[in-house]
């Protein structure tokens, strides 16, 4: 199964509720209703239906390293095999099979001191692989948790973020320097429970971790503030009316990189943008209502004046998003 159904998203309110969950996956229905200016009973009913349908999943992923983009050129007919091997890695954030070259792209969280082992020992063992390249992320311009398809106003976004635990900037979620220390056992149990359902109540988390509810609340808040865990809504962009996904590789003169970064961060079509090593400085994950909109984006956008080239690959299938395996890959 490669294309999950997009029902039962019925109207703009469903999409706005989804966008609110993208801002804060653990926001209460009361806070979402207040931010959107909608009756709480309506938001509870619709939000619960969306979560129970599986179209929107709230997941959590422990941050144990810095982001590295991995591209793979696969032997013919072996693309799904290589992408699945990448997706099943616990440190993999996303994995897509693409048109063109590379035939698969993924992001992994790898401490820099382990990068040599990843490149020389682990990636060469991928099944079906003919060639790999690794591009450490130097700076995130936008991560998936910042993207909400432009469906919410600035005031609504501010209301949803008000009261949520303050976290490090999403554009650079892990500060440079020493790798994070090993988590305590209770924290690991909390993260394991959240990985299965990012909206588990503090009481449920307390029972999983064997601590009091107050302790579970305090520990989770500390983990989020420190940037040790990412909680996010995971969904197919098609659910928001954006079924055409594309990966863009952008090359720009170094002196224009900052201007391009600013423009990309303002586009509702850019779900993810990172400044990476290599000859093409930007990797973008994008989503559009149709291929005409994609064509317009890569031929007529004002920011194209500051770039030298744009390579476009369509996403054929996705095996992992936001640290969560596609439903048909889960055990």
Structural class computed from helices and strand pairing: alpha+beta
Mean pLDDT: 89
Strand order of the largest sheet: 2-4-3-10-7-9-8-5
Task: Choose one word for the global shape.
Answer: globular
How do the SSEs run, as a string of H and E?
HHHEEHEEHEHHHHEEHEEHEE
Low-confidence stretches: 170-179
The largest sheet, given as strand count, sense and whether it forms a barrel, is:
8 strands, antiparallel, barrel
Number of strand segments: 11
Percent strand equals 25-35%
- Spatial extent as radius of gyration: 20 Å
Specify the helix fraction band: 25-40%
Q: How many helices? A: 11
Distance linking N and C termini:
15 Å
How would you concisely characterize the structure shown here?
β10 (309-321) and β11 (324-325) form a beta hairpin. This protein has eleven helices and eleven strands. By secondary structure, the protein is an alpha+beta fold.
């Amino acid at each position: 199964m490669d294309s999950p159904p997009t029902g039962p998203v019925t109207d703009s309110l469903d999409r706005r509720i989804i966008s609110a969950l993208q801002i804060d996956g653990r926001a209460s229905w009361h806070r979402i209703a207040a931010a959107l200016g909608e009756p709480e009973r309506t938001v509870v009913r619709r939000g619960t239906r969306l979560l129970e349908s599986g179209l929107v999943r709230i997941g959590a992923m422990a941050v144990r390293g810095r982001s590295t983009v991995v591209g793979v050129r696969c032997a013919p007919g072996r693309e799904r095999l290589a992408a699945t091997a990448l997706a099943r890695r616990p440190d993999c954030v996303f994995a897509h099979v693409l048109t063109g070259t590379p035939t698969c792209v993924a992001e992994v969280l790898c401490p820099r001191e382990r990068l040599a082992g990843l490149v020389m020992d682990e990636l060469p063992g991928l099944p079906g692989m003919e060639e790999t390249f690794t591009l450490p992320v130097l700076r995130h311009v936008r991560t998936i948790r910042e993207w909400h398809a432009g469906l919410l106003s600035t005031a609504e976004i501010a209301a949803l973020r008000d009261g949520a635990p303050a976290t490090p900037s999403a554009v650079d979620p892990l500060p440079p320097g020493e790798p994070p220390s090993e988590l305590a056992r209770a924290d690991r149990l909390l993260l394991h429970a959240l990985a299965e359902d990012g909206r588990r109540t503090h009481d449920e988390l307390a029972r999983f971790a064997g601590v009091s509810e107050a302790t579970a609340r305090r520990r989770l808040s500390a983990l989020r503030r420190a940037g040790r865990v990412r909680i996010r809504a995971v969904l197919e962009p098609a659910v928001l009316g954006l079924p055409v996904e594309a990966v863009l590789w952008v090359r720009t003169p170094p002196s224009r990189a900052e201007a391009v970064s600013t423009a990309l961060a303002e586009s509702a079509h850019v779900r993810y943008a990172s400044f990476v090593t290599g000859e093409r400085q930007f990797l973008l994950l994008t989503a559009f209502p149709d291929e005409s909109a994609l064509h317009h984006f890569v031929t007529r956008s004002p920011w194209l004046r500051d770039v030298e080239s744009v390579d476009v690959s369509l996403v054929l299938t996705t095996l992992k998003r936001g640290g969560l395996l596609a439903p048909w890959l889960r055990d």
